[in-house]
Specification:
Layout lengths: L23 E6 L3 H17 L7 E6 L5 H11 L4 E9 L5 H19 L4 E8 L2 H7 E3 L2 E2 H18 L2
Parallel strand pairs: 1-2, 1-3, 3-4
Antiparallel strand pairs: 5-6
Helix pairs in contact: 1-5, 2-3
């Protein structure tokens, strides 16, 4: 459903599993940090609200959104985490760079999800302008970071339910 019809921060609190024993990796792009920092804040606060312990939340930074796939893969391979949240922001400009970055990150995260036992949550905001990004990073459409945290908790619970 389009963000215009759904607040990214609204969810049924009681439908979210307890995250107190879950370990999270969060990989954050430094590019457009005014947006990605707000998304990170939303994700961390929401994880903690559902019981995640601060010591079980590992935060790593990469230069830009294109590096999110590599960063997420490195966290999966080298850190003891149950799930990874990849946070980035790409704002459309005058060149096709936007399309290449968005496509590359999307395909990369999809590949990680298809080939790993650790869920990687897609927290890449792709917008036409800065205002749309602000609206999705704690603005009028809520915070995509909140949504990513809830998705991470639910996907980890899903994986655990299969074991």
């Amino acid at each position: 459903m389009a963000t215009a019809y759904h607040n990214l921060s609204e969810y049924d609190f009681n439908s979210v599993p307890d995250a107190s024993t879950m370990r999270f990796g969060i990989v954050v792009s430094k590019w457009n940090y005014e947006i990605t920092g707000a998304l990170l804040k939303g994700a961390v606060e929401t994880l903690k609200k559902h019981g995640a312990k601060e010591e079980n939340i590992l935060i790593k930074f990469v230069p830009g959104s294109f590096e999110l796939t590599f960063g997420a893969n490195q966290v999966i391979e080298n850190c003891d985490v149950d799930g990874v949240i990849a946070i980035g922001c790409v704002i459309k400009g005058d060149t096709p760079h936007f399309d290449y970055v968005c496509m590359g990150v999307t395909q990369g995260i999809t590949h990680l999800n298809a080939t790993s036992d650790i869920p990687v949550i897609y927290g890449l905001i792709t917008t036409s302008d800065m205002q749309q990004a602000v609206d999705r990073a704690g603005g009028k459409h809520g915070n995509k970071g909140d949504e990513c945290a809830i998705t991470a908790i639910k996907m980890i619970d899903f994986v655990w339910s299969l074991k």
